[in-house]
Amino acid sequence: MQFQWYPGHMTKAKRQMQEDIKLIDLVIELVDARIPLSSRNPDIDELGKNKFRLILMNKSDLSDEKQNQEWSEYFRKKGYFVVCLDSRSKAGMKTVTNVVMEVCKEKIERDRKRGILNRPVRAMVVGIPNVGKSTFINSYAGKACAKTGNKPGVTKGKQWIRLNKNVELLDTPGILWPKFEDQSVGLRLALIGAIKDEILNIDELSLELIKLLKAHYPGVLKERYQLEEEAEPVEILKQIAENRKCVAKGSELDYSKAAALLIDEFRSGKLGRITMEFPGGVKESDEGNN
Questions:
Q1: In the CATH scheme, what is the code of domain 10-170?
Q2: What is the pLDDT of residues 211-222, one digit of tens each?
Q3: What is the C-alpha to C-alpha distance for residues 241 and 256, in angstroms, rounded to an integer?
Q4: For the chain, what is the total number of helices (H) and then of strands (E)?
Q5: pLDDT above 50 (res 156)
Q6: How far apart are CA 236 and CA 229, in angstroms?
Q7: CATH 1.10.1580.10 fits 201-287, yes or no
Q8: Cβ 290 vs Cβ 273: under 8 Å
Q9: Are 274 and 62 in contact (CB under 8 A)?
Q10: pLDDT tens per residue, range 44-86
Q11: Helix (H) or strand (E) run with residue 147 in it
Q12: Please, what is the Cα angle at 18 between 14 and 24, to 5 degrees?
């Protein structure tokens, strides 16, 4: 199964980010906690190499709690600050602000020594499609967010959102898209919905998901669908179609409907908290491969 990625205006977005990044203190990068490495864009490390860095492992309510801890430790060892959160819930936002202030305390102290007081930390949020960037910004900003107007050196039309007295956010951080050669990265991105379903073969995608669940989360399929998990993936998909009464015209089993149901239940967390890549299996060569 080949995954095609459509980068759209990637070059334009990258050029825009190179300009914007000069104006900010901190890059806040959202990743999907179910695939923390595959949902990163390797370009961001290069573009943000002289900035403070915070990784938000979003959708961590859908990922394996033990793996959340292991991935957090993995990124911290590489020099990032890390917060696990579910951006749909505002509960974790205070933690984000506290960590932002911790990340930027050197800058704040440097400003203080120069007599610059109360200048907010300026942050840019980046992340590939479907990692929940917009949801995070909306939750973090809340209804009280106020645009603070153009700043010197900022091109016309750009706006800063004052999130609170300590943090300002650049609200037009063009989305960057990952480029990948490794098809397993494409598979993982497809499974979380970062690649449009319309251009995917959902039946094949569901078989890959079944293989992954059998290997790393044995018992999950058996418990959810009351089936024989030792069977081959195609047979398991057939059993799901039978058990969930996925029937097409003429009483034939509708494999595509069963495949879509399985993927939807994985994405929504109905199969439980599942992570699809593991820090213990990461090789240095993998890190630049997505």
A1: 3.40.50.300
A2: 999 999 999 999
A3: 9
A4: 12, 7
A5: no
A6: 7
A7: yes
A8: no
A9: yes
A10: 888 888 899 999 999 999 999 999 999 999 999 999 999 999 9
A11: strand 146-147
A12: 125
Greater pLDDT, 180 or 109: 109
- For residue 288, pLDDT beyond 80: no
pLDDT tens, residue by residue, 117-129: 778 899 988 888 7
List phi, psi (to 5°) of 155.
-60, 155
- Strand partners of residue 56: 30, 83
Q: How many CA atoms lie within 13 A of 121 on its CB side?
A: 29
Domain boundaries, the chain: 10-170, 201-287
For residue 90, what pLDDT band results from cuts at 50, 70 and 90?
Answer: confident
Encoded tokens for 266:
């994985």
CA distance 104 to 112: 12
